[in-house]
Design a protein that fits this description.
Uridine Diphospho-n-acetylenolpyruvylglucosamine Reductase, domain 2, Uridine Diphospho-n-acetylenolpyruvylglucosamine Reductase, domain 3, Uridine Diphospho-n-acetylenolpyruvylglucosamine Reductase, domain 1, 3 domains, five-stranded antiparallel β-sheet, four-stranded mixed β-sheet, globular, binds flavin-adenine dinucleotide
Length: about 325
């Protein structure tokens, strides 16, 4: 879909369409291939309008800050829906916060504190959007995104706007799937992931053909100053333990039941292990950092090597938390 294809869309669209987009510019690993096209909607209505006009079989990928995402070097054949800068509403609605999918965690945490609400501090240190945090059930220091959800707002791939309750989802540790419609999709998603060598939980988008555009979150009344202090303390803790000076995607592997991925990786002597421009961080063994213009293949090969070594030495099969997709180069 080049410019001639763009002309097929109605002129009423108010967002920005781009072609052959380097996904390294949209992912915190600063690596990866090219997406055929990207649409950054002007707002929710504009996104609906765009989806109404898309061919039913167009592959779609929702992207927030790209802080948990690797697009392989062969690129993504489809349309990326960029939520950052598109779905940005954030307001109090009664006792709840209504927040759209493109809002960053830090902004949400500050907004909650400003409104004397507590319990949102943990969002402050997660460098993702609300949409990505809903898709991943992101969390840290004992709190998780879905603990705060009253209901979510989703768009189907044909542009239908729905509200769903948390009970409609299977929510676990870095895992979210829509119940009911899920069985066929789950099986399909599982097979696809296995073919790619990972047992990744596919995002709600691939599973069920819909994605998050907003949510109503509930927090308790609290002390704004205490919330700000808590945010500061959590950020200091991160700065001390994470290699935030180099491009990364946070924890690469989920923690295995009752254990810590970082501890296992470090125990296998893998800190500092390097493939091409990708390296297992010296500071935090569950982080892979882009030290020198890493390709997506460097990063993915290192993930596979770490996984194989840990399995061989400890018997524990680590599962990636990061989402890897797109085409491999031959
Ligand atoms: C330095 C650093 C620290 C981190 N610390 C933490 C942490 O403490 N806890 C934690 O849980 N994670 C952490 N992460 C990982 C990451 O920030 C989270 O997973 C976050 O939720 C990803 O949000 P995102 O907007 O960047 O999503 P993206 O990376 O853009 O997307 C991730 C996945 O979510 C899907 N997705 C994105 N938006 C939507 C949407 N609107 N609807 C449906 N699916 C969507 C994408 O398709 C993709 O499959 C860290 C990452 C970094 C770089």
């Amino acid at each position: 879909m080049k410019m001639s294809e763009a002309a097929k869309f109605s002129e009423e669209l108010r967002g920005e369409m781009s072609f052959d987009v380097e996904m390294r510019r949209y992912t915190t690993w600063r690596a990866g291939g090219i997406a055929q096209r990207m649409y950054q909607a002007a707002d929710l209505e504009d996104l609906r309008n765009f989806l109404h006009q898309l061919p039913a079989d167009e592959p779609l990928l929702a992207v927030g800050q790209g802080s948990n995402l690797l697009v392989r070097d062969g690129g993504y054949r489809g349309t990326v829906l960029l939520m950052v800068g598109a779905l940005t509403e954030l307001r109090m609605e009664g006792e709840n916060i209504y927040v759209q999918a493109g809002v960053a965690g830090a902004k949400l945490a500050r907004f909650a504190a400003l409104n004397n609400l507590c319990g949102a501090e943990f969002f402050g240190g997660i460098p993702g959007t609300l949409g990505g945090m809903l898709a991943m059930n992101a969390g840290c220091y004992g709190s998780e995104t879905w603990q705060k959800v009253v209901r979510v707002q989703v768009l189907t791939r044909t542009g239908e706007l729905l509200e769903r309750m948390p009970a409609e989802y299977e929510v676990g540790y870095r895992h979210v799937a829509l119940l009911g419609k899920g069985e066929e999709g789950r099986e399909k998603g599982g097979k696809a992931a296995q073919q790619e060598g990972f047992t990744l939980p596919p995002s709600p988008l691939t599973l069920n053909q819909e994605f998050f555009v907003g949510a109503w979150l509930h927090f308790e009344q609290g002390d704004a100053e205490a919330a700000r202090q808590e945010m500061k303390a959590l950020l200091e803790k991160r700065n001390a333990s994470q290699p935030l000076d180099l491009p990364n995607a946070g924890s690469v592997f989920r923690n295995p039941p009752g254990g810590f991925a970082a501890k296992l990786i470090e125990g296998c002597g893998l800190k500092g292990k390097r493939i091409g421009g990708a390296q297992v961080s010296e500071k935090h063994a569950n982080f892979i950092v882009n030290v020198n213009d890493a390709t997506a293949a460097d990063i993915e090969n290192l993930i596979e090597e770490v996984r194989a070594t840990v399995l061989q030495q400890t018997g524990v099969d680590l599962h990636p938390e990061v989402r890897i997709l797109g085409e491999k180069t031959i």
